């Protein structure tokens, strides 16, 4: 499964067993991206809490918009694992393979609105050139109709996926079988 030791749910004890149970309850099953953190249950729990907050918490960004960011950023980073997971989640909202493929491959040509295109352009800029982000980028988002709270949320989502993509890629997290990817979106 990975380049480091992973403690499976069947061998988990104590705090790790509790975190696995919490993840399964909240998400439907335990994804390998969480299992990779099994040697540090406190980090796994913090990761779950952060993920749930930025992806499901109260926000001016819709769940669809957040999944679009997750998909585009993960694809830009070459993270097949996260691109697959979040393309599947995005399907729950868009239900159009061509649009999802366009969000991954060339969001500028994707059949989405100008607001979403501005959001995705910003997310990719945060991913590829974070030090180059400037007031012009922020003003472009405001002009597209995003509030400063929305801009914070999209930055959090993009930054989170840059972190997780690196975790997955560096430690060799493997994609679960199709039948094992059963999550609450």
Explain what you see.
This protein is an all-alpha fold and 185 residues long. It folds into two domains: 9-57, no CATH class; 63-164, AhpD-like. The protein has nine helices and no strands. It is globular and about 50 Å long. The two termini are 24 Å apart. The model has no long low-confidence stretch (mean pLDDT 96).
Please summarize what this structure is:
The protein contains 9 helices and no strands. With 185 residues, the chain is mainly α.
Note the main attributes of this structure.
185 residues; mainly alpha; AhpD-like
Q: Helix and strand layout, with pairings?
A:
Elements: H1 14-27, H2 32-35, H3 41-56, H4 63-76, H5 80-94, H6 97-105, H7 114-128, H8 135-143, H9 148-171
Helix pairs in contact: 1-3, 4-5, 4-6, 4-7, 4-9, 5-6, 7-8, 7-9
């Amino acid at each position: 499964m990975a380049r480091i030791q992973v403690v499976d749910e069947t061998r988990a004890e104590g705090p790790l067993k509790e975190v696995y149970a919490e993840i399964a309850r909240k998400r439907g099953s335990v994804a390998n991206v969480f299992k990779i953190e099994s040697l540090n249950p406190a980090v796994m729990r913090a990761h779950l809490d952060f993920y749930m907050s930025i992806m499901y918490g109260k926000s001016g960004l819709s769940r669809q918009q957040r999944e679009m960011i997750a998909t585009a950023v993960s694809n830009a980073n070459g993270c097949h694992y996260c691109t697959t997971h979040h393309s599947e989640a995005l399907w729950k909202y868009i239900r159009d393979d061509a649009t999802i493929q366009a969000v991954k491959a060339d969001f500028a040509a994707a059949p989405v609105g100008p607001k979403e295109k501005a959001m995705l352009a910003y997310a990719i800029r945060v991913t590829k050139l974070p030090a180059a982000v400037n007031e012009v980028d922020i003003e472009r988002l405001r002009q597209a109709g995003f509030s400063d709270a929305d801009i914070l949320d999209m930055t959090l989502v993009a930054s989170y996926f840059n972190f997780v993509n690196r975790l997955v890629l560096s430690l060799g997290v493997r994609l679960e079988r199709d039948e094992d990817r059963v999550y609450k979106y």
